[in-house]
Write a structure and sequence with these properties.
By secondary structure, the chain is an alpha/beta fold. It is 31% helix and 20% strand. Helix 8 links the parallel strand 10 and strand 11. The two termini are 33 Å apart. The protein binds threonylcarbamoyladenylate and magnesium ion (MG).
Length: 316
């Protein structure tokens, strides 16, 4: 059931149930992070492997400090500058965070989501919420309440509707090692924005076979239909069948596409990121055989968009 009833969400979560919640990045599938049984329900609903740790969502930096042993200096600078917002910090976990949340790791991912409804929920609850993206494991992340309902509606009691996600792509995940910031997942906060605050970062986003963080698996965020990424003219020449398009700003009217999804006519990365996952879902549902996606310029959020497209197009 979809609705905007904050009290209902509050009661269900307090009873150890799972509720889908809006954030600025993507919708999350949330439950009480301190209750292992409530946490297990998330894995069950999503068919997520238990070795994949969950992010803990809190309302402010003091709460973030409470669930970690310490927050290293540069991560604290980033939290102060960009929270609430699309950044997750990996820090040493406090003993009160159950092992099921972190898949037995010593570190926990913590973030402060920038969404009024969910911040209100977090302020009113006496516990933090752990939440992965609210999609079946491996599929495209949801950026509307309806996306969640389409796939998990019969598995969870409530979806809190907070409208379309403003950022539309998951948070950027960072840790600190030897005084330097390491980026583990490209996301809604660009590398340029991070480096402006804390200097050069180390990129560690291609651990394809690392079971610690399956969001970095080669194949992830993937539609059911085949997806190819690259130069649209080259892809068009080399493929058969009915085609759907995802492009940055061009319509490619000289080519015969059944469905076109132009993500931002004014070439705004933020606008493009916000509609990427909706476009993938729409094309996945439409009567086409293959999705062709244009490679984005490698700058700003273009990097995160390319990362998602690459993983969504990886060979099964
Ligand atoms: O924007 C977001 O981060 C969204 C919203 C709902 O907050 N959440 C999200 O969660 O994308 P999820 O579970 O779909 O992706 C989290 C990624 C996974 O790849 C997981 O393996 C990794 O973060 N992760 C979580 N905790 C970790 C840890 N302690 N060490 C390494 N990787 C971790
Ligand atoms: Mg996910």
């Amino acid at each position: 059931m979809i609705g905007q009833d904050l009290d209902k969400a509050l009661h269900l979560l307090s009873d150890g149930e799972v509720v889908a919640i809006p954030t600025e990045t993507v919708y999350g599938l949330a439950s009480n992070a301190l209750d292992p049984i409530a946490v297990a329900k998330i894995f069950e609903a999503k068919k997520r492997p238990f070795f994949d740790p969950l992010i803990v969502h809190v309302s402010d930096i003091n709460e973030a400090k409470k669930w970690s042993r310490a927050i290293p200096e540069k991560l604290l600078i980033l939290l102060q500058k960009f929270s609430p917002g699309p950044i997750t910090v990996l820090v040493e976990k406090s003993d009160t965070i159950p092992d099921i949340v972190t898949a037995g790791l010593d570190t926990v991912g913590i973030r402060i989501p920038n969404h009024a409804l969910t911040l209100e929920l977090l302020k009113r609850l006496p516990f933090p919420l752990c939440a992965p993206s609210a999609n079946p494991f491996g599929y495209v992340s949801p950026t509307t309440a309806q996306h969640v309902a389409d796939q998990l509606g019969d598995k969870i009691p409530y979806i809190l509707d907070g409208g379309d996600c403003a950022v539309g792509i998951e948070s950027t995940i960072v840790s600190e090692k030897n005084g330097q910031v390491v980026v583990h997942r490209l996301g809604g906060l660009s590398l340029e924005e991070i480096e402006a605050e804390v200097g050069n970062v180390i990129l560690d986003v291609n651990q394809h076979s690392n079971p610690k963080a399956p969001g970095m698996l080669d194949l992830h965020y993937a539609p059911h239909k085949p997806l190819l990424v690259g130069n649209i003219y080259e892809l068009y020449q080399s493929t058969d069948g009915k085609k759907g398009l995802i492009s940055f700003s061009e319509r490619f009217d000289d080519l015969n596409f059944q469905v076109r999804n132009v993500l931002s006519e004014k070439r705004d990365f933020k606008e493009a990121a916000a509609s990427l996952f909706s476009a993938l879902r729409q094309l996945d549902k439409s009567d086409i055989d293959i999705i062709l996606a244009e490679r984005f310029p490698e700058e700003g959020l273009g990097k995160a968009i390319n990362d998602r497209l690459k993983r969504a197009s990886a060979k099964r």
